[in-house]
Specification:
With about 400 residues, the protein is α+β, with helices and mostly antiparallel strands. Helix content is about 35%, strand content about 25%. It contains 14 helices and 20 strands. Strands 5, 6, 11, 12, 13, 14, 18, 19 and 20 form a 9-stranded antiparallel beta sheet that branches. The relative contact order is 0.13.
């Protein structure tokens, strides 16, 4: 077995054992591009070895995706067939483990009409809203991971040829998910414990708000009563541990959708819907984006904000130290799964119900009454740097340093 094959085996083991924590007689639902087939085949094999009774694989192809997006009408692109919704909900009802493997180029759909892209994204968000609600309440296990396509790899490593770029990006991914160490599972158990130490501390503080200051950023984010911090592993409705993102370096919670004021600027490009958005700034008043600008991808950003009423409010606040493995790698991935784990970030759109006391069993109306945002979209963007300071504001108005110059202050 080559060194690459050995690392790929470890990666597949991690996704099955740590990411999804596949259970005997359970089902697995995998979505990924054909570029990721080597990993998908290994995950499928190992899931069956763990006792899964079915592994459902839904493959896509980037070139076909481009052709459909460029040639179909807006109405056709925004049509989500009921059978596709029913299939997803069948596996959700069965509490399958859902694995999504991202491979596509961040610029996959850059030449597609922005109105078409918005129609596609809005239609998908509405059609799969019930499924998204279950994901956001940890009803069943789910995991997002990555595998390089040539186009994505060449964007990250523009000076390398196709083969060398893919190999270099694969090595970086192995590094970020700890598949390059002798015992990756033990490494993840240690990492999980470290993140939960931060979670436990923040949950004792019960801050009413966080204040952010950095070049281009002066923002106060209110936190709802009963908010909970989370990080690394989660528990599904059956009490089984899983890891929603691999890699993950974040500790996160929910903002109060009505108590966000000030302005914030991105520090890394945002890849969304096959397009890049960069050099952008959002201004908030009473929780809502009231003004925005962007040096690149203005129309795409506008479409995100116009997806629905909740798209102009925040649904997540996440803390990631500047001194962390992905950040220290010094490489821009142009992929939110990886870049968000190199930087503090916040998200426009829907909030995670499990980040509120009792939230997993609350209705959408109850969650909204508690201050949590609801939307058909959830878009993370990066705001961290080595110049970012974050202060926790207590009930009596006292400020405590949470982050100093981009890193934990405690």
């Amino acid at each position: 077995m080559t060194q690459f094959e050995e690392k790929l085996e470890k990666y597949a083991d991690l996704l099955v054992d740590v990411g999804l924590n596949v259970q005997p007689d359970g089902r697995v639902f995998i979505r990924g591009a054909q570029d990721a087939l080597p990993l998908i085949r290994l995950v499928t094999e190992k899931a069956y070895q763990k006792g899964a009774k079915e592994v459902k694989v839904v493959l896509s192809d980037d070139r076909l995706t481009q052709l459909h997006a460029k040639n179909q009408s807006k109405d056709e692109l925004s049509t989500i067939h009921q059978w596709a919704i029913d299939e997803r909900m069948f596996y959700s009802d069965e509490k399958a483990g859902f694995l999504s493997i991202t491979s596509s180029s961040p610029e996959l759909l850059k030449d597609v009409d922005p109105e078409k892209l918005q129609a596609m994204q809005v239609a998908s968000g509405r059609a799969f809203k019930d499924f998204s609600n279950r994901i956001q309440s940890d009803y069943h296990s789910w995991c997002v991971a990555g595998y390089p396509s040539v186009e994505w790899a060449r964007l990250v490593f523009p000076d390398k040829d196709d083969e060398a770029a893919v190999a270099a990006l694969m090595d970086l991914i192995f590094y970020t998910v700890r598949a390059d160490v002798d015992d990756p599972v033990s490494a993840w158990e240690k990492h999980d414990a470290t993140l939960h130490e931060k979670v436990d501390y923040l949950n004792t503080r019960k801050y009413k708000a966080l204040r952010y200051e950095a070049p281009g950023t002066d923002l106060v984010i209110g936190l709802p009563k009963g908010h909970l911090w989370a990080g690394a592993s989660s528990l599904n409705a059956d009490g089984e541990k899983f890891m929603a993102n691999m890699p993950t370096e974040e500790v996160f919670s929910v903002p109060d959708r009505n108590r966000v004021d000030g302005y914030v600027s991105n520090t890394l490009p945002l890849s969304h819907g096959g397009n890049l958005i960069d050099d952008f700034k959002l201004t908030f008043k009473d929780g809502r984006v009231v003004d925005f600008e962007a040096g690149r991808g203005y129309e795409v950003l506008k479409n995100i904000l116009d997806a629905d009423e909740g798209a102009r409010h925040l649904g997540e606040v996440a803390l990631v130290p500047d001194d962390s493995p992905i950040s220290n790698a010094g490489k821009l991935f142009y992929n939110t799964l990886f870049d968000e784990n190199a930087s503090c970030h916040i998200a426009l759109g829907s909030a995670y119900a499990f980040c509120l006391e009792g939230g997993k069993t609350m209705s959408r109306e109850e969650l909204e009454a508690a201050g949590l945002n609801d939307s058909i979209t959830h878009v993370d963007f990066m705001i961290g740097s080595d110049q970012l300071n974050i202060y926790g504001i207590t009930e009596d108005g006292t400020e405590e340093k949470v982050f100093e110059k981009g890193n934990w202050a405690f």
